[in-house]
């Protein structure tokens, strides 16, 4: 039996798509659909049946400030993410030049990213200790003489935790920006220099437009990360003091596994998913504004 070239091409195409599509459907779309279904039930995680209650979980979520209100704690991580990207872009521009020792500085800045997250959390736990922590000892040494309760003060605990993310992930963002900067033709900068453009003007009119899509990717990772913070408050503060460092994800886990309300926890996860999607759409409109 003779098979035409078009048929052979379609068979090969389908054969190569079966596995990735099966994985995508099995581990992405099906769990998402099942998550939305569970958010419409009052399942406790153990019962064989899942009682259908419609949108009651969503009504409870948006009417209870103890649940939806923890989103304000994630704001500190969002601010830290913006600072992280600004610092990463600054280091990337600086280290893309021919400065001495740039490779050493790249390693030093990137090193925190490859460190284990739990180890980093415990390391900063010792650093932030209000009695014998290194940070307060530094304050005493330089003459400030004021011990700060970095993880026990409700007004600063989230910013203290968010700073750890800046320290850990700036190197990762820097590497992303470095790769995009190396793809910009050197001739553009040489032509701008001949025309009398300053470094700031070259950065504004050449560098930023050229890496706009990379900035979008980096901010995508930043926004999703800031909305999904879990390990830092879970390890260092357990949500304290008095719930002031709880994030939406730690609260979701608490609702599911402490109070055995998997239906409400699923509704919280769906809301988080929709919120991240909305933020990313708005972010794309802002960053990619004016680009066709």
Which descriptors apply to this entry?
single chain; 292 residues; mainly alpha; MetI-like fold; 14 helices; 0% strand; flat
Overview of the structural elements:
The protein is an all-alpha fold and 292 residues long. The protein has a domain at 71-246: MetI-like fold (Orthogonal Bundle), CATH 1.10.3720.10. It has 14 helices and no strands. The radius of gyration is 24 Å and the shape is flat.
Write the SSE topology.
Blueprint: H1 5-38, H2 56-63, H3 65-68, H4 71-95, H5 102-114, H6 117-127, H7 134-141, H8 157-181, H9 186-194, H10 199-210, H11 212-227, H12 231-236, H13 248-257, H14 262-287
Helix pairs in contact: 1-14, 2-14, 4-8, 4-11, 5-8, 11-14, 13-14
Short account of what is shown:
Belongs to the binding-protein-dependent transport system permease family. This protein is 71% helix and 0% strand. It contains 14 helices and no strands.
By oligomeric state, this entry counts as: single chain
Query: What is the count of DSSP helices, taking H or I runs of 4+ residues?
Result: 14
The description of the largest β-sheet is:
none
Detail the poorly predicted runs. none
Shape: flat
Secondary-structure content class: mainly alpha
How would you spell out the order of helices and strands?
HHHHHHHHHHHHHH
Helical coverage, percent range: over 70%
């Amino acid at each position: 039996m003779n098979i035409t070239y078009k048929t052979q091409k379609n068979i090969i195409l389908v054969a190569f798509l079966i596995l990735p599509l099966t994985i995508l459907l099995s581990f992405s779309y099906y769990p998402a659909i099942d998550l939305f279904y569970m958010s419409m039930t009052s399942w406790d995680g153990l019962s064989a049946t899942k009682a259908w209650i419609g949108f009651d979980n969503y009504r409870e979520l948006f009417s209870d400030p103890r649940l939806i209100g923890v989103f304000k704690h994630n704001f500190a991580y969002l601010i830290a993410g913006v600072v992280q990207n600004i610092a990463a872009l600054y280091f990337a521009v600086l280290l893309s030049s021919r400065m001495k020792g740039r490779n050493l500085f790249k390693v030093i800045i990137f090193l925190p990213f490859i460190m284990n997250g739990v180890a980093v959390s415990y390391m900063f736990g010792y650093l932030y200790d209000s009695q014998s922590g290194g940070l307060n000892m530094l304050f005493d040494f330089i003459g400030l003489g004021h011990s700060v309760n970095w993880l026990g003060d409700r007004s600063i605990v989230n910013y203290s935790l968010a700073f750890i993310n800046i320290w850990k992930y700036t190197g990762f963002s820097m590497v992303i920006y470095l790769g995009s900067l190396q793809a910009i033709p050197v001739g553009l900068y040489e032509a701008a220099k001949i025309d009398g453009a300053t470094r700031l003007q070259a950065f504004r009119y050449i560098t930023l437009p050229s890496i706009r899509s990379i900035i979008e990717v980096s901010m995508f990772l930043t926004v999703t990360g800031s909305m999904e913070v879990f390990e830092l408050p879970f390890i260092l503060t357990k949500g304290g003091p008095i719930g002031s460092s709880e994030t939406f994800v730690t609260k979701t886990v608490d609702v599911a596994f402490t109070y055995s309300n998997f239906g409400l926890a699923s509704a919280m996860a769906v809301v988080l998913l929709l919120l991240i999607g909305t933020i990313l759409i708005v972010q794309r409109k802002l960053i990619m504004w004016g680009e066709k």
